[in-house]
């Protein structure tokens, strides 16, 4: 079933799940006869595009756009029709971080059939969670996301808790271009300039659509991280512009700052290249030279503000506990001798399945015994981080994509409140494609 030559989906397989499974999960969709409040059409199609630098990408896109934005109001019934025009191996849409009913989760061969060229599929779910999310194809995701099949999914809250005057959504991604790999915000791989009136509060929605964690620096103003993976931080503290932060692959932060009377620079990574990629916010006129500072510390979510939801205490009794040891070894996969990424020494589909019952409290421990980071992404649920390296964190935070660095151990908790069959995998999608994924299943 994983033979690449056979045309079966390889990132998220099919085959060993029987049809009975698919019938069962489709019962979990909820009442889709309710009329939609927000409707979108996304047509998966190839399009050559040119980045700001002139580098050319043979992109695979939704609607021929780079990272299109879908926007809804909290509480809306959202309906998104996906049509595949010409992506040969088929596409889907996975709502990354969004706790949709299982049949809407977009995992081919598991929650739906892949959408082949000429076919369509309609996603419908109620947008209960407000915040910054994103979506991407889950068919051969390593290749399809790298080529551009992703966009942002923004749900505006019924009631805004943190006021802002302007918002900017920024999705960082590394493109394979005719001039090599280029890091960009959307299709902007050069420094952008944006005029903002001093005194205005700017909200940045940052989404890491790249295949590795991404460091950000915001310089020229104090700032606050107001939400992590779509979940608001209560009483966020002010951070100095000497503090860098790092987004997990697939992770999101909302960041806000008040525009001062001098420029503010948001830049990606270690580069001090004045031509970007990054954004320069300026008041009256853009400065002639861009000054870079070096950072002195890295943001640590385990001691910041207060989490919005924390039902977990030291006294919580868990119904089930699982341990995942993240590792690597050499071995055969898809008929090729390869470097494999393993969970408890196994590669998917031989990795363990987490079996839970609805309503149970689950604790999962991640132990990274490899030399790479692994952003662990759980579908359909939100995890609360309780312990890091054996010690309780000061402020448990809610995440759907937790970056686990080499030698780190994390304990996370979640409630089994969304029945179905779900993926839990590394969001370095090349790692997932050679083993690092497993299933969460309801008994
Ligand atoms: Cu963002 Cu299973 O993926
Ligand atoms: Cu990994």
Automatic annotation (TrEMBL):
Keywords from the named record: Copper, Membrane, Metal-binding, Oxidoreductase, Transmembrane, Transmembrane helix
Domain Plastocyanin-like: start-end pairs: 46-159, 169-261, 338-443
Protein name, per record: Multicopper oxidase family protein
Organism: Paenibacillus cookii
Covered residues, full protein: 236 to 678 of 695
């Amino acid at each position: 079933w994983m033979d690449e030559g056979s045309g079966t989906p390889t990132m998220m397989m099919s085959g060993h799940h029987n049809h009975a499974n698919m019938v069962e999960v489709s019962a979990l969709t909820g009442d889709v006869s309710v009329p939609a409040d927000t409707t979108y059409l996304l047509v998966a199609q190839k399009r050559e595009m040119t980045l700001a630098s002139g580098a050319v990408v043979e992109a695979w896109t939704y609607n021929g756009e780079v990272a299109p934005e879908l926007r809804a109001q909290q509480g809306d019934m959202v309906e998104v029709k996906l049509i595949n025009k010409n992506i040969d191996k088929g596409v889907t849409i996975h709502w990354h971080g969004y706790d949709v009913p299982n049949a809407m989760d977009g995992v081919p061969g598991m929650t739906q059939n892949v959408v082949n060229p000429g076919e369509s599929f309609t996603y419908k779910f109620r947008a209960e969670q407000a915040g910054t999310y994103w979506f991407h194809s889950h068919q051969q995701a390593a290749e399809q996301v790298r080529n551009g099949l992703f966009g942002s999914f923004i749900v505006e809250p019924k009631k805004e808790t943190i006021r802002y005057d302007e918002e900017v959504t920024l999705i960082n991604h590394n493109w394979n271009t005719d001039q090599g790999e280029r890091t960009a915000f959307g299709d902007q791989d050069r420094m952008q300039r944006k005029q903002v009136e001093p005194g205005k509060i700017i909200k940045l929605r940052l989404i890491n659509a790249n295949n590795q964690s991404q460091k950000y620096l915001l310089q020229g103003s104090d700032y606050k991280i107001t939400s992590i993976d779509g979940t608001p931080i209560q009483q966020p503290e002010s951070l100095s512009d000497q503090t860098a932060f790092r987004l997990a692959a697939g992770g999101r932060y909302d960041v806000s700052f008040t525009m001062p009377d001098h420029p503010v620079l948001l830049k990606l990574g270690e580069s001090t290249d004045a031509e970007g990629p990054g954004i320069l916010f300026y008041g009256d006129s853009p400065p002639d030279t861009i000054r870079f500072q070096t950072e002195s510390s890295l943001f640590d979510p385990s001691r910041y503000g207060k989490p919005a939801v924390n039902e977990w205490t030291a006294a919580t009794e868990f119904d089930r506990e699982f341990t995942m040891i993240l590792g690597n070894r050499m071995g055969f996969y898809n008929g090729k001798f390869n470097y494999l990424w393993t969970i408890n020494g196994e590669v998917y589909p031989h990795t363990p399945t987490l079996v839970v019952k609805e309503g149970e409290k689950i604790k999962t421990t991640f132990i990274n015994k490899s030399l790479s980071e692994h952003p662990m992404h759980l579908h359909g649920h939100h995890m609360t981080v309780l312990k890091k390296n054996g010690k309780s964190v000061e402020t448990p935070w809610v995440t759907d994509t937790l970056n686990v660095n080499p030698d780190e151990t994390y304990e996370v908790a979640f409630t089994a409140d969304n029945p179905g069959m779900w993926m839990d995998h590394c969001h370095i999608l090349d790692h997932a494609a050679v083993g690092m994924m497993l299933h969460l299943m309801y008994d």
